[in-house]
């Protein structure tokens, strides 16, 4: 028997969506454009996209959920083809080549790659005879993730490519070794340290840690211990000295500058660090309760570029204050916890893995977007899900979420 759709998730989705539109309206508002449905403005276009997203969500809830599993690889292949096509006919925007333009309409293909990859990976990881411990399984799973991420990197969109790291969490839930997560964390720390301090000093510190582990920490040493410590030391050393190459060749100049500002290597509040500087001023000026809807002075004066897209959260901070910001964060956390709870009650491996993928993708977007607006993370240009202005991201996130909610409606039936 088919279950009802999870209305708690739908309500949280709708609240974030509507609250987001009000803040987009505030960010775009001026005396010349006060009409709510004005397609000449971003808030008017967003209202149109909200209507489209609502129709798409309704359609998904009436589709046979088995279709998503049976066509997962086909959807994935189609989106990969679209990503490749973008490399040849894409339109450059903000340094990235990730948009396809057809007349006055344009969309970002990388946004749709997220749910397509989640479907393909869920399909593969739910195979009945799959052995998670086999090297072949790991290689295929990571290939499914790295193909779209690699193509998106070629589009010079490192921010969107980074989001594909979110699939670590669902893989870990399904049996991936925690050593991979720890290795990833160590690599991130070494990357930052290699940018901050002399590389030879950093290698010397690692050598000291290795010697301490071998001759002080361990009571009994075997040949295996010596081999693993040596291999780990050489791997870390090679990684440290390759950081500059990756930093210079993979990241765009403006992205490198933003990381330097975040790490304190440069202090530039008039150019590279301008957005974050003004964003923090706007958020701080809101105080506890905010200045009120449409009363944000920094918002009205357009001091923060991209305020209706990547920096939309500073509008919340200025006009709705700490309380409004807390309400929005609570709504996101509630939605994420709800998705995880729904994922855990799935009978199907496909649905469970896909649910965890949805939660992980939304969480990484939420964490990075708010972190960069507050100056805690580098500005890499990814939207706040369901909240930022943008038809491509809103439609892609809606599809991502409602495919899972449709799966949950038939959780008693293996898919």
Structure, described:
The structure is a single chain. The protein is mostly helical and 415 residues long. It has two domains: 7-176 and 264-409, no CATH class; 197-251, no CATH class. Helix content is 67%, strand content 3%. The protein contains 17 helices and three strands. It has helices spanning 7-28, 42-60, 66-70, 72-89, 109-125, 135-154, 158-162, 168-173, 178-196, 199-217, 223-249, 253-263, 274-285, 297-300, 313-344, 349-373, 391-409, and strands at 91-93, 96-102, 105-108. Strands 1-2-3 form a three-stranded antiparallel beta sheet. Helix 5 runs antiparallel to helix 6 and helix 5 runs parallel beside helix 17. The longest helix has 32 residues, at 313-344. It is globular, with a radius of gyration of 23 Å. The two termini are 14 Å apart. 39% of the residues are buried. The model has no long low-confidence stretch (mean pLDDT 86).
Protein traits:
415 residues, mainly alpha, 2 domains, 3-stranded antiparallel β-sheet, 3 strands
Give the structure's gist in a few sentences.
The chain is mainly alpha-helical and 415 residues long. It is 67% helix and 3% strand.
């Amino acid at each position: 028997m088919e279950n009802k759709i999870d209305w708690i998730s739908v309500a949280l989705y709708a609240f974030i969506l509507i609250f987001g539109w009000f803040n987009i309206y505030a960010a775009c508002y001026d005396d010349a454009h006060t009409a709510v449905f004005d397609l000449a403005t971003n808030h008017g276009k967003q209202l149109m996209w909200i209507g489209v997203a609502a129709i798409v969500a309704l359609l998904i809830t009436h589709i046979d959920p088995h279709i998503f599993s049976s066509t997962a690889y086909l959807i994935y292949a189609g989106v990969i083809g679209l990503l490749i096509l973008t490399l040849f006919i894409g339109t450059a925007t903000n340094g990235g080549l990730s948009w396809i333009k057809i007349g006055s309409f344009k969309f970002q293909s990388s946004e749709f790659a997220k749910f397509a990859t989640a479907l393909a990976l869920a399909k593969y990881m739910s195979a009945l005879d799959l052995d998670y411990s086999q090297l072949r399984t790991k290689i295929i799973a990571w290939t499914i993730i790295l193909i779209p991420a690699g193509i998106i990197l070629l589009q010079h969109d490192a921010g969107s490519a980074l989001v594909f790291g979110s699939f670590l969490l669902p893989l870990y839930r399904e049996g991936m070794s925690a050593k991979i997560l720890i290795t990833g964390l160590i690599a991130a720390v070494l990357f930052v340290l290699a940018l901050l301090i002399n590389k030879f000093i950093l290698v010397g510190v690692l050598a000291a840690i290795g010697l301490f582990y071998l001759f002080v920490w361990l009571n009994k040493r075997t040949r295996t211990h010596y081999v693993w410590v040596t291999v780990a030391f050489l791997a870390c050393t090679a990684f440290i000295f390759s950081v500059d190459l990756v930093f210079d060749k993979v990241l765009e100049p403006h992205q490198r500058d933003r990381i330097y500002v975040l790490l304190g290597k440069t202090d530039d509040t008039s150019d590279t660090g301008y957005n974050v500087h003004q964003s923090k001023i706007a958020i701080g000026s809101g105080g506890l309760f905010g200045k009120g809807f449409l009363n944000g002075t920094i918002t009205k004066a357009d001091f923060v570029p991209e305020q209706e897209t990547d920096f939309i959260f500073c509008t919340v901070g200025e006009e709705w204050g700490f309380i409004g910001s807390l309400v929005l964060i609570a709504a996101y956390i509630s939605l994420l916890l709800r998705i995880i709870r729904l994922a855990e009650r799935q009978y199907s491996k496909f649905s469970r893995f896909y649910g965890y993928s949805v939660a992980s993708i939304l969480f990484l977007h939420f964490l990075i977007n708010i972190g960069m607006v507050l100056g805690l993370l580098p500005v890499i240009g990814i939207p706040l899900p369901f909240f930022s202005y943008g038809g491509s991201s809103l439609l892609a996130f809606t599809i991502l979420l409602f495919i899972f909610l449709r799966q949950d409606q038939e959780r008693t039936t293996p898919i």
